[in-house]
Design a protein that fits this description.
- This protein is an alpha+beta fold.
- The protein folds into 2 domains: about 100 residues, 2-Layer Sandwich (Pseudouridine synthase); about 100 residues, Pseudouridine synthase, CATH 3.30.2350.10.
- The protein contains 5 helices and 11 strands.
- The longest helix has 12 residues.
- The radius of gyration is 18 Å and the shape is globular.
- The termini are far apart.
Amino acid sequence: MSEYRKNFKGSPKRFHPKGITILFEDYDIIVIEKVHGLLTVGNVKERENTVTSLLNNYVRKGNPKSGNSVLIVHRLDRDTSGILIFAKTEHSKRYLQKHWKETVKTYYTVVHGLLDKKKDIISSYLTENSIHRVYSTQNTDEGKLSKTEYKVLKESEKYSLLEINLLTGRKNQIRVHFSEAGHPVVGDKMYAGKDKGIKRLSLHAASLSFNHPVNEERMTFKTGMPDYFNSLMG
């Protein structure tokens, strides 16, 4: 570990925000795991209780020298749990976004039913309508090519537990692809309707692998399977 990395001291634990687990932090980036139900970025209805707002308060209160704010690199849906990376400098943000295609993103999800193919790649062109609903289109000029690689980890009578390798990162990509395939994500109110007795969207960003924006060291962060997913599978 370089002296640069050794000299960094994160904010004291008393400043760590609720709903967020800090997995790694240095002068350039901060990697966290968020709970489901927490927005990445504020909207008209909610501005304070978001990952971005909570992390901004964290870096300002706990360690002023680390910067006054965090910069958004990518997002997770409100109801998706898992790993997010934020930049602390403009250079880091630009680097991570420029090299985002080289970032390996793995998810866990529970979907309805049993899939005929236990390992496959779903591919389509995704676009969005006026009410922000994403769907596949045959118009290749209108949509963006989207690829979702999956493999089945476990099956029950009603559900399948999948590991997803997100080959592209479009809005609602996983949810749309499996809904259109007839196997919607369990708990997906938008693309599957109401699931009686289901407590949350069964989608979790489980791991992220990328090059550090300054020293280009390959870094990988992983989280475990949410307990709720295992309980769904029995």
